[in-house]
């Protein structure tokens, strides 16, 4: 398995992968090209024999650059349970683009036990605290058949950067 930074040309490949990974929310192909263009340094694609088998989109919110928000995690069904998501996550947080990140944030629906397990395992491997709090309710989605989203916060990933005077 090869884990690498996104390239702009991966947009269509990532859209196709996401469609193959229910119950993920499917965004437009345009959206995935934007992820490739704007968040390549904090997102990854996992490939096997040149085929996409996994993808994580993540970014540092402008108002809270000390956080890394994981937006979407996709792993093809026949590759789940093999540590692909965990390896992709470790790859992202080790990147220079994530220097200074103090915590990981992600939202998870209450019925998505597999996704929550990925983040619990990440926290456990690193000996980090994992906190949960409500983020969005089903009503926030305007009556769509969408469940609540719970915000998971994991950290601290590293000690905050110290400023030095000269």
Textual characterization of the structure:
- With 166 residues, the chain is α+β, with helices and mostly antiparallel strands.
- It has a single domain, classed as Aminopeptidase, CATH 3.40.630.30.
- It contains four helices and seven strands, in the order βααβββαβαββ.
- β3 and β4 form a beta hairpin.
- α1 crosses α2 and α3 crosses α4.
- The protein is globular and about 40 Å long.
CATH topological fold name: Aminopeptidase
Uncertain spans: 159-166
- Based on CA atoms alone, the radius of gyration comes out at 16 Å
What would you give as the CATH superfamily?
Gcn5-related N-acetyltransferase (GNAT)
Per the principal axes of the C-alpha atoms, what is the gross shape? globular
* β-strand number: 7
Which CATH class applies here?
Alpha Beta
DSSP strand content: 25-35%
Biggest beta sheet summary:
7 strands, mixed
Structural class: alpha+beta
Give the termini distance in whole angstroms: 46 Å
Please state the second-level CATH architecture.
3-Layer(aba) Sandwich
Determine the fraction of residues in helical runs and give it as a percent range.
25-40%
Total separate domains: 1
Structure annotation, total helices: 4
Give the averaged pLDDT, no decimals.
Answer: 90
Strand order of the largest sheet: 1-2-3-4-5-7-6
